[in-house]
Design goal:
The complex is a heterodimer of chains A (433) and B (145). Chain A is of the alpha/beta class and 433 residues long. Chain A has two domains: 1-327, ANL, N-terminal domain (Rossmann fold); 331-429, 2-Layer Sandwich (GMP Synthetase, Chain A, domain 3), CATH 3.30.300.30. Chain A is 32% helix and 24% strand. In chain A, helix 5 (105-121) packs across helix 6 and helix 11 (340-348) packs across helix 12. Chain B folds into two domains: 7-75, VC0802-like; 77-140, 2-Layer Sandwich (Alpha-Beta Plaits), CATH 3.30.70. Classes of the chains: A alpha/beta (433), B alpha+beta (145).
Chain lengths: 433, 145
């Protein structure tokens, strides 16, 4: 499989690390000398640019959190003037104010280059028709994929979200080969297609799903492949970082996290100590080349692990495993950490139930009570109550084994759980703290 | 050769969440389709139930319920004509026990002058033969039209 930028993508690890150190030094020098915000943060931590002599010294730098970004609203932390800024995006403001992100022309270039490498690594190119079914607008998922897909010479169908019947029509009529969307939206689209007697697998050319923005499981990916004939590619990014930036390559051995663009650490969220290869923890990201809105040691809240071994595709950059949850998506039930993606995995082991689910957590007396609603597939329905109860118990046992915490399972009628076109909201937490 | 098929009564089984208004929805669909409900029972699972009913136009009812988004299935049951007097059920169940026939579920309704017992069994053909051989009467499909 060809590379978009072979010189960088295949660069030996030590050269890449040298490049990272050079970029980090330049970044810290710039922030310390030209940004009151970053200077004040560094002084509070007692660190000066000369303290950065090796790559590990990144841990001497202060963390940044979403709160810093919110406090900086709209552009207090920006380091570019309005003359230099060519675009704004904003993150979905689920809590309080949104975060505004500004981009210089170089920032847009870097973003597009990063995702162009990723799309190429999946095997996409000028023969492909890529339907972008992420929201266009302030959300970065639409325009991000749009520009990268154009850059590699693919034909772009800027479908954005909504009107699923028309989306299916476009997939059919334009010979769409890849689609950028959330995993739950692609599954929903599959359902609508089935309802209209269109098989995504047999009646369309759609083969690749560029999927992200919400945690999902390998099990769902397998099911998507069996059912829709679509290979689900994990993508990663966030508006604070630029937008969607990274994805798996066609080997699907983790997401290639371009090291010349970002420096990645994985830490224990409680002790803030660095974790080793393969150890699961909180991601901390330093964007090495951002101009308008630099980020150092940004705690994005996603949980994953990192490997830095050469991929079988030949690329040398660090790879992260599937995002298993967000620090803030994680629920703690009776003291045990539960990720919706784990629940999804346990549920999808049962062919009798559908793809949608909802977790409700309540407090009964002093105890947390977790209930999982899942849809019974019509073909799995039986008149035999004993069999239905046995199915329910089987799912409960599987959840218990996987989560180490028991949950009540409720079978509900198909089509009754909420569907999401954007990020799925799987958890209803009714506990009062 | 005995035509057993005609004794296989098409009962509707409907998966239903246990929440207010769900039975009303089903009844409403039947009303709209002008389908008459002859016999009826609800089996309670946990958080859900299975509504079982005998109707005069099973195909039409099935179509309507499916269209309304319900999960519906046909289940073959037997309809035994019962003498409406004390001991009738005992005699029948004694006979079935002796034949080793297990009843999955049953429900009855009175249909003067006789009563009807709806039976769901594992081996419907053997049950059909056993009941008919004992001299009892089974209602056939035409009885419910």
């Amino acid at each position: 499989m060809g590379c978009w930028n072979p010189k960088v993508e295949l660069m030996p690890k030590n050269e890449l690390q040298n490049l990272q150190l050079k970029s980090l030094k330049a970044l810290v020098y710039r922030l310390y000398n030209f940004s009151p915000f970053y200077r004040q943060r560094m002084e509070a931590k007692g660190v000066v640019p000369d303290d950065i002599v090796k790559l590990d010294d990144v841990t001497k730098l202060p963390f940044m959190t979403k709160k810093d970004l919110r406090d900086g609203y709209p552009d207090k932390i920006f380091m570019a003037s309005k003359r230099e800024i060519v675009r704004y995006h904003a993150s979905s403001g689920t809590t309080g104010k949104p975060t505004i992100v500004g981009y210089t022309r170089n920032d847009i270039e870097t973003w597009t280059e990063s995702l162009a490498r990723s799309l190429t690594s999946i095997g996409l190119g000028s023969d492909d028709v890529i339907q972008v079914s992420n929201t266009y607008g302030l959300f970065t998922g639409g325009l991000g994929f749009h520009y990268a897909a154009e850059k590699i010479g693919a034909a772009v169908v800027p479908a954005s979200t909504g009107n699923t019947e028309r989306q299916i029509q476009l997939i059919q009529d334009l010979g769409v080969t890849a689609m950028a969307a959330t995993p739950s939206y692609l599954m929903y689209l599959g359902e609508i297609a089935d309802k209209n007697h269109i098989s995504i697998k047999n009646d369309t050319s759609l083969r690749v799903g560029l999927l992200g923005a919400e945690p999902w499981s390998d099990r769902m990916r397998d099911r998507m492949h069996d059912w829709l004939g679509v290979k689900g590619i994990n993508c990663y990014g966030a508006s604070e970082l630029a937008g969607p930036l990274w994805s798996e390559c066609s080997e699907q051995q983790g997401i290639h996290f371009w090291g010349d663009i970002a420096l990645l650490e994985i830490i224990d969220p409680k002790t803030e100590e660095p974790l080793g290869p393969g150890e699961r923890g909180e991601m901390v990201i330093t964007m090495l080349t951002k101009e308008a809105f630099p980020l150092i040691r940004y705690r994005i809240g996603d949980i994953t692990s990192m490997e830095w071994e050469k991929c079988s595709c030949g690329r040398t950059h660090p790879r992260i495993s599937r995002i298993t949850g967000r620090v803030d998506d994680m629920i703690i039930v009776r003291g045990i950490n539960v990720f919706p993606s784990q629940v999804e995995f346990a549920l999808l082991c049962n062919p009798e139930v559908g793809n949608e689910f909802q977790i409700t957590v309540e407090r009964k007396g002093a105890m947390d009570d977790m209930m999982v609603k899942v849809e019974l597939k019509p073909e799995a329905f039986t008149d035999n109550i004993i069999q239905l109860n046995a199915l329910r118990e089987r799912i409960e046992n599987r959840l218990k084994t996987l989560l180490n915490v028991s949950a009540t399972v409720e079978l509900v009628e198909p089509g009754t759980l909420p569907r999401f076109e954007g990020k799925a909201k799987r958890v209803v937490d009714r506990r009062e703290y | 050769m005995l035509d057993r098929e005609k004794y296989h009564i098409k009962q509707l089984s409907i998966f239903s969440e246990n929440r207010p208004g769900r039975l009303m929805d089903i009844a409403g669909s039947m009303k709209e389709a002008k389908v008459n409900i002859l016999g009826f029972t609800i089996a309670e699972g946990s958080g859900y139930g299975v509504v079982r009913m005998l109707v005069d136009q099973p195909e039409k009812a099935h179509q309507m319920l499916t269209k309304e988004g319900h999960v519906v299935k046909f289940t073959d049951v037997l309809a035994v004509k019962m003498e409406d007097k004390p001991g009738g059920l005992y005699d029948l169940t004694l006979m079935l026990r002796d034949a080793g026939i297990n009843i999955e579920y049953a429900y009855g309704y009175r249909n003067s002058p006789a009563a009807v017992l709806i039976l769901r069994v594992e081996d419907i053909d053997r049950a059909t033969d056993t009941i008919l051989a004992s001299g009892r009467e089974l209602y056939d499909v035409s009885h419910f039209k």
